[in-house]
């Protein structure tokens, strides 16, 4: 079962293509991290998923329904937090939620207070229900935004950079809330420019670069796809590079005394792909004086930097 599926999804602003032929597939029950540097097209994609802007080309399906054709039927099943929710600062958190709940024509007035209290408790704001919103911290405002998204039961939550601008405490609160919502079975689609965040809370991820999808899948698979790296320290760097090249391990960078190659390596030498010991043997046989050799799998961080190029924040 798929919560979100897009095919060939494209958005052009004039001559600029902000989102380019996106084929996304978000399984139900996933916490799906939508990762990319600033300006890579995350918000534009989310706005298309929610029917807030229309695509230039391609299709969107959310919870099995076409968007924008079925948007009115689908949106009540989807909670969204996009670009900082707007609240009345001089009303309390509870009053703000009551106003929002009143605007929902399906919501019964008799159960309104119970719904508002439950949503505030769910995000840990029960104690601040009657405090004015202007006295809320950024983290509390963000949690109030989530409470607003949770006034009705939701099958899918779409959150655009929900921890942006939060201090470490607020960030932790929002992340643990996302995890607990996912534990209750809600599918969560969350955009972020932080790999560390995605690694902490997501089961799946897609990586966007300049409007194009460069990777997507379960986080474990993305980790496995990270290519092992070989590093050879030698005074004979040029010879070492040519040996690695002969073995099909294109050397990537060569500092004085160091040659680095990223390559698929095998744990045995049976399948024609060299194992680390074969590489060392070939280097030695070619007369390369090896001072140091290591073969290590690239971290997810290195892999994502490789995929997205410069300008990618990996830390918090
Ligand atoms: N309404 C618009 N008119 C023209 N260009 C736009 C519009 N909205 C977005 N863009 C451009 O589309 C590109 C993608 O923007 P988008 O906001 O989707 O990226 P993002 O990944 O969400 O980045 P950020 O994290 O900075 O919000 C950017 O180059 C942006 O300038």
From TrEMBL:
Q: Which residues form the ABC transporter domain?
A: 4-235
SMART domains tied to this protein: AAA
Q: What is this protein called?
A: ATP-binding cassette domain-containing protein
Q: Which Gene3D superfamilies match?
A: P-loop containing nucleotide triphosphate hydrolases
Q: Sorted alphabetically, which keywords does the UniProt record give?
A: ATP-binding, Nucleotide-binding, Transport
Which spans are transmembrane here?
none
Identify the Pfam families for this entry.
ABC_tran
What family is this? Belongs to the ABC transporter superfamily.
Instruction: Mention one GO molecular function.
Output: ATP binding
> Which SUPFAM superfamilies does this UniProt record tie to the protein?
P-loop containing nucleoside triphosphate hydrolases (SSF52540)
Q: Which domain of life is it from?
A: Bacteria
What the entry lists under InterPro entries is as follows: AAA+_ATPase, ABC_transporter-like_ATP-bd, ABC_transporter-like_CS, P-loop_NTPase
């Amino acid at each position: 079962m798929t919560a979100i599926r897009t095919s060939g999804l494209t958005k052009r602003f004039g001559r600029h293509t902000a989102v380019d032929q996106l084929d996304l597939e978000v399984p139900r029950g996933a916490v799906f991290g939508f990762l990319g540097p600033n300006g890579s097209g995350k918000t534009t994609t989310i706005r298309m998923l929610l029917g807030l802007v229309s695509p230039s080309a391609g299709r969107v399906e959310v919870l099995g329904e076409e968007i924008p054709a079925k948007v009115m039927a689908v949106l009540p099943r989807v909670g969204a937090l996009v670009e900082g929710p707007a609240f009345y600062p001089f009303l309390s958190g509870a009053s703000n939620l009551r106003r929002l709940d009143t605007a929902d024509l399906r919501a019964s007035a008799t159960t309104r207070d119970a719904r508002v209290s439950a949503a505030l408790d769910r995000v840990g704001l029960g104690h601040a229900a009657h405090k004015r919103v202007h006295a809320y911290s950024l983290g509390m405002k963000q949690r109030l935004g989530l409470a607003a998204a949770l006034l009705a039961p939701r099958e899918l939550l779409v959150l655009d950079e929900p921890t942006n601008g939060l201090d470490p405490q607020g960030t932790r609160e929002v992340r643990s809330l996302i995890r607990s919502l996912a534990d209750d079975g809600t599918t969560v689609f969350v955009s972020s420019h932080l790999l560390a965040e995605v690694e902490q809370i997501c089961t799946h991820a897609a990586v966007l670069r300049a409007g194009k999808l460069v990777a997507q899948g379960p986080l474990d698979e993305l980790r496995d796809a990270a290519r092992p790296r070989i590093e050879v320290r030698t005074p004979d760097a040029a010879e070492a590079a040519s040996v690695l090249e002969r073995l099909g391990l294109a050397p990537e960078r060569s500092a004085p005394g160091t040659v680095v190659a990223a390559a698929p390596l095998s744990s045995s030498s049976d399948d024609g792909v060299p194992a680390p010991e074969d590489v060392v043997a070939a280097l030695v046989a070619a007369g390369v004086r090896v001072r140091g050799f290591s073969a290590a799998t690239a971290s997810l961080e290195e892999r994502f930097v490789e995929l997205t190029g410069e300008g990618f924040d990996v830390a918090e």
